[in-house]
Every structure is written in structure tokens, then in C-alpha cells.
Amino acid sequence: MTYNIGDKVIHYNFGFSEIIGVEEKMISGVSQKYYVVRTNGMLLWIPYQTEETSKLRPPSSRNEFNKFFSILRSKYSPLSSERNVRKSQIQGRFVNGSTESICTLIRDLSFYKNQKKLNEYDSSIFERAIHNLIDEWGYAFNIPQAQARVELNKLLLESYSASK
Q1: Among 56, 72, 41, 50, which residue's Cα sits nearest to residue 7?
Q2: How far apart are CA 20 and CA 13, in angstroms?
Q3: pLDDT band for position 51 (50/70/90)?
Q4: Helices 99-115 and 145-162, interaxial angle, to 10°?
């Protein structure tokens, strides 16, 4: 997908971002175009029109969020109690980068957190996933992040009820 300067995008790892430029850079003797992406106070250079651009996607629409709300309020899917298996499950969902995958990750980690204490890795990914989702949610509905967080918590409470 091709993006333009000023386009809002979601980076699979850093969340809500904006394309602020396109630059040509010479790296290891190879000249290539890069999107210059501003995200969370950082600048990233993402290769232009390569598989690497799959690290970027357009923000989800309001209509798409209805499906995501259903995921967040639905019954959880258990995560493994074995640390390395759970880490692989979590990493796979997070790196996927789709809003759907992030919603299932948040729902399932939230439920897991209510049952057991999250380790440092799980907790870090959980907080990043929530932050990324809240940013995208706020953008899609043009609402403050605090409001999106309150709504997320309400949906997760419905998920707890569905899981009993």
C-alpha cells in the first residue's frame, strides 16, 4: 500500500503514527526510499513499497470497531500457563498488528491477569497493546483517550461475565 505525507497509519509495534515525509537513503551502497514516520515522539524510517511496509496499516474505521467491540466483550481464549508457550502466543498476536489480534490479546491477557500475576514481559506487552488500541480507538471515534479507556474497561467487564 502506498501512503502520502500526512496520512495517519498504525505501526504494528508502536501504534498510531503519521507519515511526515518520504526520503531516499543510501544504506550499504543501496539507495532506497523510506517513509518517515512519527510515532510516540520517535522518528522511524520504514522502507517504501517493500514487505517492510506491512509494518504499517491504515487505522481501523468506526464500522470495523463494532467487530472489535464484540471480541473485547466475548469469552476469553485461555493462554498457556507455561511461560515460554504463553510468550510465543502473546508475541504472535502482538506482532500480527491487526486490531482484531490486539483485541483478542488484550481480552485474554486481561482475563489471565485477573487469575494470576502477569510477569514483566506479559505486563509490558499488555500495556503497549492497550495504549496502541486506545490511540486508534480515540482516532476512529474522535474521542479522548481517557474515554476510550473507560469504554474498554466496560467491555472487558462484560468479557469476565461471559467467561463465568
Answers
A1: 56
A2: 18
A3: low
A4: 60
